Predict the structure.
Amino acid sequence: ITTGRKVDESLFEELEEVLIQADCGVTTAMFLVDQLRDRAREEKITAAEELRKVLMEEMVALLEKNAAPLKTPEESPYVIMVVGVNGAGKTTTIAKLAYRFKQENAKVLLAAGDTFRAGAIEQLGVWAQRLNVDLIAHQEGADPAAVAFDAVNAAKARGSDVLILDTAGRLQTKVNLMSELAKVHRVVQRELGRDLDEVLLVVDATTGQNALSQGKIFAEAVPLTGIALTKLDGTAKGGIVLALANELDLAVKLVGVGEQYEDLQDFDARSFAAALFG
Amino acid sequence: NLSSRLQETMRKLRGKGRLSEKDVDQALREIRLALLEADVNYKVVRDFIGQVKERATGHEVLSSLTPGQQVIRIVNDELTKLMGGTQAKLTLSSRPPSVLMMVGLQGAGKTTTAGKLARMLKGQGHRPLLVACDIYRPAAIKQLQVLGEQLEIPVFSMGEQNPVDIAKAALSHAQKFNNDVVLIDTAGRLHVDEELMEELVQIKAAVNPSEILLVVDAMTGQDAVNVAESFNTRLELGGIILTKLDGDARGGAALSVKAVTGKPIKYIGVSEKMDGLEPFYPDRMASRILG
Ligand SMILES: Nc1nc2c(ncn2[C@@H]2O[C@H](COP(=O)(O)OP(=O)(O)OP(=O)(O)O)[C@@H](O)[C@H]2O)c(=O)[nH]1
Ligand SMILES: Nc1nc2c(ncn2[C@@H]2O[C@H](COP(=O)(O)OP(=O)(O)OP(=O)(O)O)[C@@H](O)[C@H]2O)c(=O)[nH]1
Ligand SMILES: [Mg+2]
Ligand SMILES: [Mg+2]
């Protein structure tokens, strides 16, 4: 888009268009391009290629603003709680995390906290079996707080290095489900006697502006430590994470790029920004 | 909301005397913003605004005492028209069993929707058969079986065999056991996964569905057009089902998908439960999108 072009208003508009089409949202797209206009003026940028480079820098700066990798393990068990709307990729992401920790020789325990959806417990059970990790599960319809309670105590009793808790998908507008989530989180905190190491919000890369509502309301229910962006192997650009960084200070820690347990990567702001324009 | 923002814009403009085409452009800019914030695809918005502009700069707006209201009414009108009428009717074959296929991206809600449709069909006096053609996702077959049990609707499964063979066997089973509608649940897949898209083409060729339904998550953003276009080009869709409308997603994907495929949105998913299926009403969707 920028090769051989001169820097004029139509170029700024086209760059804004690219950002909007990547799901950055109008607010964040305008924010980035306004910043770009300022810098173009201050730095007297006349080459379009230079402009693109500056926009990349802006995007990376925004993405790295609150960025951090997964928390370094301190106390055992290292506890991760995974939350998000229906179908985002929570259960699959947990399988990927379990694999990653197993590769690091950690003793992993999974907890089937989705006691509602048909086949949810079995789904995590298949992953546990494939990865040869233990699973704490009750029956379908059980109280998810009870599962969480048992899972933390089992992790302590068994000397697990890592405990990953799955939760049922829920739309953020369901007040009772969001308070259920807050309750499960409190139970884990209490049984652990400290904060969780990670509370990850799983966001589907195909999601549009609704991700902002997801980020805002899930953050009100539980203290989110980061985002796992899934399905980036599709054609969606996942630009919503720029809006999440810009408006909610939420940072991406992990990226899902497929349906198998190896398909998990650490978030890299630079390659993400480059791919968005690619 | 858009209505009040537009009133405000128009009020300021009105203060200048008679409304000009340039003033209406300003109102259309607000509309454009609202549509983009609602996740309508960028190009679809551009085409739509272009389409609406002619009517919006006509006599009915420029001479109105409440031009803001007029513009919104026109936009709402045009949006509703664009999204088609209410077509909450599945295309069944005149010679049963009819085959319906659920297709779409990962996690869109296909399996859940298959259960909902089966329940609806049973309630209408049909004898549906659910078919487990997702052989990849862990416990996908189990998920469908649990739904079938809850609904007291039979589920045909052959475990992890070739989905094309499963579909064919399910059709014979339906003929033998007098099921008049066969609902095939397929695995979620990316529209850019050549191999898996070809699998759908093969299932279609093997069992000749009377309708292929694309299941789309209502929170889908700009990518909705790419997905819908690919699935439609490869399979010739019969209709679309938009899920998770019980959330607060504005659902602009509805407009994008309709605009790019021309195919009707037939139903919407409004809960995780099996009775959470409703007909699609374009006028309600239009207001929701405009916000
Ligand atoms: N292509 C692709 N598919 C993914 C990715 N992550 C998850 N999926 C698929 O998305 C679908 C939903 O994944 P789940 O893990 O069941 O999602 P969930 O959030 O646990 O869903 P619920 O528990 O029903 O809310 C499955 O078909 C997964 O294989 C990813 O990174 N890429
Ligand atoms: N709130 C709500 N949840 C829904 C709706 N439709 C489906 N879901 C939920 O969305 C999640 C994904 O649904 P599935 O039916 O497993 O989706 P799928 O398309 O079959 O997923 P894959 O087979 O992995 O591609 C589940 O948690 C469902 O309960 C709906 O209309 N409203
Ligand atoms: Mg799950
Ligand atoms: Mg499914």
Q: What stands out?
A: Residues A 90-91, 114, 120, 166, 169 surround magnesium ion (ligand 3) (CB under 6 Å).
